[in-house]
Amino acid sequence: MVSKELKYINGHFYDDKTKNRIELKDNIKITVATDEKNFILLEPAGNKPKQILDAKAKKQEVESDKKVKHYKKVFGAGKALYFHIPKEDVWFKAELLEDLYIFLNKKSKKDEGKLYSCACVVTANINNKILFFEEIYGTSLNELYKSTYVHYYGNFGNPACNALDRFLEDYHDENSNLMKYRLFTSKDKKAKGNPD
After folding, report:
1. Which residues contact 85 (CB under 8 A, 6 or more apart)?
2. Residue (of 189, 148, 170) closest to 47 by Cα position
3. Average confidence (pLDDT) over 20-24
4. How far is CA 48 from CA 20, 51, 122, in A?
5. 113-132 burial string, b = 16+ CB within 10 Å, else e?
6. Which residue did the predictor score with more confidence, 17 or 83?
7. What is the CA 139 to chain-centroid distance, rounded?
8. 3-state DSSP of 90-135
């Protein structure tokens, strides 16, 4: 057993003598001695939405957004989606806290939609590979993936993703991603949006 004097600055540990940044191995036990006031209870991980819109308010938000040319509702609030972080084959379950829409941007010349921002939360690590799991919040599926990756794996790898590819409707079916909802048909293009 060894004892070191460390300083914790900007999310990193530094050896007080050598001034070198050090990291700790995963799944080890350490003893931290400091004043009680130095332990801070943290807010939930990710970016917790300040407000969660009901179905009517979310539709109004999408309809009134100046960049939206056409839109379609894909799923209602409460829908479970799944994603996987390949780094260590870890699977997560996410829940939509608001309705999820796909939209065509007025500037886009293609009929390929983008996901509209949607409050969501990671609710479970379904293959139990995370020792201390906690819920992670996001204001979009892309942000949710990134926040989950950074929370559990820090800067080890690339936390970016395309949520249309990464999120699945069925945990057991790799082909159940959201890409199939991306294309807009002439039926989808009634007026500005489409009725629910």
Report:
1. 92, 148, 149, 152, 153
2. 148
3. 84
4. 34, 9, 11
5. bbbbbbbbbbebbeeeebee
6. 83
7. 8
8. EEEEEEECCCEEEEEECCCCCCECEECCCCEEEEEECCCCCCCCCC
